[in-house]
Each structure stands twice: as structure tokens, then as C-alpha cells.
Design brief:
This is Heme oxygenase. By secondary structure, this protein is mainly α. It has ten helices and no strands.
Amino acid sequence: MAVIPFSQALRERTWTSHGDSEGASFMKDLMSGEGTREDYIALVAQHFFMYEALESAAGKFASDPVAAAFISPQLTRMPALVADLEFLLGPDWRTKISALPSTQRYVDRINEVAAQNWAGGFIAHHYTRYMGDLSGGQAIGRLMQRHFGFETNGVGFYLFDQIASPKQFKETYRDQLDAVEWSDEERERVIDEVIVAYRFNTEVFIDLTAAKAAA
Ligand code: HEM
């Protein structure tokens, strides 16, 4: 039996969970143009809390022998998120946003993985967000520009100005995933954590829909 590369196994084994995230009605509405500018801003706000946790964990893993290969300043999203929120909500943006319960659970999990010094877990969360941002995220960014008339202000999160070719970047990322000398058992744990990460993302979309209905 041919051995398939880990990056391929990871993708295949998590693609159903990806479909759950992609299929959430909040996302579908935003992409189709049925979602409002307020919906979009609510999503940007949740991204702020997610990336605050993820990128503070990245700081912690910067000298980890396994995780360091995945951490790249070209990916860093916090400055873009801060600029987007300033543009969308004004100078006092920070007082206007808060983490939804599902976002807080997601953040807690990222912090927990970091506290455990678990490189595989950190990479699982890193992969789920950044590979997504460089994939479907690119189409989402263009749709938000079209629906809401953004040029670059407000959608900086989706614009990786230091990555010339997302396709090439993702190929290198997959090569790096394949190069890590994880045991089969550890690979299983990483795949399971990506499924967990997808679930958090889906729950945030569900929470965003509920918050919208309650407003
Ligand atoms: C409307 C929402 C979404 C759309 C339309 C979408 C679309 C896509 C597409 C077309 C790909 C394949 C790109 C390629 O092979 O180069 C992809 C990959 C990916 N997406 Fe999404 N996506 C969405 C939401 C999400 C969400 C919410 C996440 C998680 C936060 C996510 C994470 C990923 C990841 C990690 C990959 C890379 C899989 C791999 O090749 O290993 N996506 N997405």
C-alpha cells in the first residue's frame, strides 16, 4: 500500500469538518451578499480575539525546534486586524468589541495548547487558520471588497502583501508538514486537533448568527 503524505492525509481526514465550517449560514450569507456590513464587522472582531491568541502563541513557539519552521512574519495578521477595526469602528474600536462565548472557548484552547508547550497542537491551529486564509480566505476577501466597496481599508486581513503566491506558499507549507518527524500517534493527535479547530470556527459562525438574531 502506498503511503500518502501527511499533508494529504490531514486534508482528507478533515475535509468533512471543513465543509461544516464553509457551509455555516453566516458565511454563506456573507459570501452571497445577503450578509450586512455589520455582520462582516462582527466577524472581523472575532478574528481579532482568535489571532491575538494564535499570534501570542506563535511568539511562544518561535524557538521551538518543530513549530519554528511554520512561523513566518509574512503571515502575521494582528496589525492588519487592528487597522481594519480602526477603519470600520473608529479609534475607540477596542471598547466596542468583545469575544463571543464560542470565540472565548477557541481562545482558551489555543492558550491551553501553548501552556502545554505542545508544538503539534499549535501547528494544528496555525494550519487551520492560515491555510484557510490563504485558500478560501482569498475569495472571501475579494467578495467583501465587491459587496461593501472596500479597496484595501477594512479588508487588510485578507491581503497578504508579503506573500506573492499563496499557492506556492501553501505548497511549501505542506512540504514542511510532511517533513516533520512525528510518530503515527502524534500525527493522529494533530489531525484530531485540526478537527477541533474547525469545530470552534463553525461554532463561532453559529454564535454570530445567534447574536445577530438577538440584536
Ligand atoms: C465560505 C467559507 C470557505 C470557503 C469558500 C473555503 C474554500 C476553500 C477552498 C476552495 C480550499 C482549497 C484551496 C486549495 O486547495 O488551494 C480551502 C482550503 C482550506 N480551508 Fe477553506 N473555505 C472556507 C472556510 C474555511 C474556514 C472557516 C476554515 C477554518 C478556519 C478553512 C480552512 C481551510 C484550510 C485549512 C484549507 C487548506 C486545506 C489543505 O489544503 O490542507 N476554510 N478552503
